[in-house]
Design goal:
Layout lengths: L7 H18 L3 H7 L4 H9 L18 H12 L4 H20 L2 H12 L5 E4 L15 E5 L2 E12 L6 E7 L8 E7 L5 E3 L13 E12 L3 E2 L5 H37 L1 E2 L2 E2 L4 H29 L5 H26 L9 H9 L9 H12 L4
Parallel strand pairs: 1-4
Antiparallel strand pairs: 2-3, 3-7, 4-5, 5-8, 6-7, 9-10
The structure holds flavin-adenine dinucleotide.
């Protein structure tokens, strides 16, 4: 993150998070990626190091902090070299705020602290096989039966879904459309709730992505978050910090790819000189650095506006698209600078290129970001 807006607490956190990543993540990442599995012990280690609690209230076991503290942790985790590991450690960041901001005191006290210390894993289950971008099209049903809701339906592509001890699940309690959705906390072990094996993916391989099944699953009514039928608006507000986090992931991934390419350009020789001495290569590096700096600055300014409490819904959508486009292009250029070596799994740029491809899809696609910008700006009448 751009340190223009940092104070000493941000710098100290950046150092501590980087040290954690250098010690606990980077040496093992290639092995975890090959295995296609998220290491179970890592959540506990990150919780004990205080990284999962950054940005959460101290009264619930968090470490306090602002949006920059949270993005600093995101960037440090991405610099571990695996988007999947960063996503696996970040799945609580897209689910827990719904409980924190819209749950009641009992829900907060029961569900938040064990996740922040890494004892339990939380995920967010919104997407369904037939409804992704179109959140209002969700068909998973929740029907009231005494002091329970009975959930029936399927969720897909759920990050940390295999390991999750609790899922925040969007389900339909009312009429068709966005007005009839509610959010529930569903705990692992609830009869009728099962998770698939990890799905095989192009990138983010170390994260466990699952299909979740709810088969007449009885969830206590006390696990309803906020108002019945009010879930859609809670989800929409939750998307803003998620998209900012994904924009920060894009910037961090772009920076790593740039650093790898810079290093390689002075190491690799062809036609009797380092490839960095070819003007085409060094101009490419100059363009990569320009786009990375520009994306970083845009994301930081939007984060600062969010910190000041401004409504940044469309700016976050713009920042995500801008940073993601820069990231995809920079990763592509980095592979090109590596030549055939860049296509081989032994080089980090190969993984960055694959991991980056998730960014224009997750947390709302680039097309949906444009739709948000269009609506907010009133384009097209
Ligand atoms: C690795 C991974 C992890 C994920 N983790 C989670 C998670 O933890 N929790 C969760 O709930 N979901 C998760 N998702 C799901 C993700 O949020 C969705 O995949 C995404 O929102 C897109 O939905 P979809 O896949 O159904 O695509 P669709 O909505 O079917 O879209 C298909 C295409 O149509 C375009 N399109 C759709 N509507 C419009 C429109 N109105 N205008 C223009 N174009 C449009 C899309 O942009 C896209 O190009 C994850 C996905 C992946 C790949």
């Amino acid at each position: 993150m751009l340190d223009l807006f940092f104070d000493d607490t941000h710098r100290a956190l950046r150092d501590a998070a980087s040290a954690f990543v250098a010690r606990e993540i980077r040496p093992h990442v290639a092995e975890w990626e090959r295995a296609g599995w998220f290491p179970e012990s890592l959540s506990r280690a990150a919780g004990e190091a205080g990284l999962l609690g950054v940005g959460y209230p101290e009264s619930l076991g968090g470490g306090g902090g602002d949006v920059f503290h949270r993005l600093i942790v995101t960037e440090a985790l991405v610099r571990g070299g695996s988007g999947g590991v960063a996503a696996g450690l970040g799945s609580h960041a897209i689910s827990l705020p719904l409980i924190l901001d819209h749950g009641n005191d009992a829900q907060r006290a029961r569900f938040v602290p064990p996740v922040l210390c890494g004892e339990r894993v939380a995920c967010l289950a919104v997407t369904e096989p037939g409804a992704g971008s179109d959140v209002a099209g969700i068909t998973t049903r929740a029907t009231r039966d005494g002091d329970h809701f009975v959930l029936h339906g399927t969720k897909c592509f759920i990050t940390s879904g295999v390991r999750a001890d609790l899922a925040v699940v969007a389900a339909r309690t009312g009429a068709e459309g966005h007005g009839g959705l509610s959010l529930f906390i569903v705990e692992r072990g609830t009869p009728g709730f099962t998770a698939s094996a990890p799905m095989e993916k192009m990138g983010w391989r170390a994260s466990d992505t699952a299909t979740l099944y709810f088969d007449q699953c009885r969830v206590p009514a006390e696990n309803l978050i906020g108002e019945q039928d009010g879930g859609f608006y809670l989800l929409m507000s939750n998307f803003v910090p998620e998209r900012l986090m994904l924009a920060a992931m894009a910037v961090a991934t772009a920076k790593l790819a740039l650093e790898e390419a810079e290093r390689y350009a002075v190491e690799r020789a062809a036609f009797g000189r380092n490839i960095g001495r070819f003007q085409v290569i060094r101009h490419r590096l100059a363009d990569m650095a320009t786009r990375e700096e520009s994306a970083r600055a845009f994301v930081a300014v939007v984060a600062e506006r969010a910190r000041r409490g401004e409504d940044v819904v469309s700016e976050v959508a713009m920042a995500k698209n801008h940073a993601v486009d820069a990231c995809l292009w920079i990763c592509d250029q980095a592979v090109q600078i590596f030549g055939g070596h860049g296509y081989m799994a032994e080089h980090l740029v190969e993984r960055l290129y694959r991991d980056a491809r998730l960014l224009p899809l997750g947390g709302g696609t680039s097309e949906i970001m444009r739709e948000i910008i269009v609506r907010r700006r009133g384009y097209g009448g």
